[in-house]
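Retry 2 of 3 after timeout on previous attempt. Resubmitting structure tokens to design endpoint.
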């Protein structure tokens, strides 16, 4: 019996997922087909009942996806790092040593010495839990995700110890729909605007207690256990709020990594992306058995 062929065309305004224009707060519209990975308006997908997609059809779809992505704004969510980079209190500063120079050797090579958790970086589950995923074991399919931004920067401006609440999440969902499974959820606090001033990032009081915002257990459990997100990220040096870190309490970071999911710390420029409708690319090197490494994180936002 010959295979029947069904062609599905997704146009603007029909079911699927579209990128919200930069600066808007449009929700993500997601259909069943969208959940299967149809991300971009205008992609023609040919589905054969028996044979696989033709190479030509698959290549055409990828080309259309590439052109769609190239037409977006690329917003860098990554800080440049160096010896003076703000960092967790237990780390020594980075050192950079020049090994070869163009003038002397014809090429330039430097040696960088810093902890894996340096600058904008990835924390794999193995950072806190033996036997769970290391950096090199993170699935590359998780390098391109839908981006959800929980914006609490106004509340943080009034209270630097603010922790995100379920009300904040419900407010997001009331405006944009249910947080999609597999999303990357970023917490916008605008704390990144204090970069690269380490004293401002730590915001210590006269007793030396740091005051900076963070996540809450309720929200993290909701996101990972009920919404089934892939990863989360934030602008501060820690998952836990500053007043908890002052007591050596890293229980929230331990929780996230204990779910065998990764997180990104020290994000930048979240004020330049919409709350919903963008995508995020997360990338980092592949150190064998790595417990952390600097990352490059970029949001893709539809042009206005």
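Retry 2 succeeded. Sequence:
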């Amino acid at each position: 019996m010959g295979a029947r062929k069904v062609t599905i065309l997704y146009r603007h305004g029909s079911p699927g997922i579209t990128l919200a224009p930069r600066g808007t707060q449009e929700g993500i519209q997601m259909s069943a087909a969208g959940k299967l990975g149809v991300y971009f308006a205008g992609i023609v997908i040919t589905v054969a009942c028996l044979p696989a997609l033709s190479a030509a059809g698959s290549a055409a779809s990828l080309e259309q996806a590439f052109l769609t992505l190239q037409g977006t704004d690329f917003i860098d969510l990554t800080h440049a790092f160096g010896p003076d980079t703000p960092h967790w209190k237990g780390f020594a500063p980075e050192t950079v040593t020049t090994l070869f120079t163009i003038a002397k050797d014809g090429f330039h090579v430097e040696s960088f010495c810093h902890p894996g958790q340096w600058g904008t970086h990835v924390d794999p589950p193995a950072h806190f839990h033996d036997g769970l995923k290391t950096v090199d074991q993170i699935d590359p399919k998780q390098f391109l995700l839908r981006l959800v931004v929980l914006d609490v920067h106004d509340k943080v401006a009034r209270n630097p110890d603010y922790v995100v609440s379920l009300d904040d999440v419900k407010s997001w969902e009331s405006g944009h729909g249910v947080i999609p499974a597999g999303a990357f959820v970023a917490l916008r606090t605008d704390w990144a605007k204090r970069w690269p001033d380490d004293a401002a990032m730590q915001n210590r009081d006269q007793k030396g207690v740091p005051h900076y915002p963070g996540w809450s257990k309720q929200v993290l459990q909701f996101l990972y256990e009920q919404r089934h997100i892939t990863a989360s990220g934030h602008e501060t040096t820690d998952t836990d709020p500053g007043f908890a870190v002052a007591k050596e309490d890293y229980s929230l970071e331990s929780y996230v990594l204990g779910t065998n999911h990764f997180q990104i710390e020290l994000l930048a420029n979240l004020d330049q992306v919409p709350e919903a409708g963008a995508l995020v690319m997360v990338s980092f090197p592949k150190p064998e058995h790595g417990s952390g490494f600097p990352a490059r994180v970029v949001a893709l936002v539809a042009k206005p």
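Attempt log closed. The longest strand covers residues 144-151.
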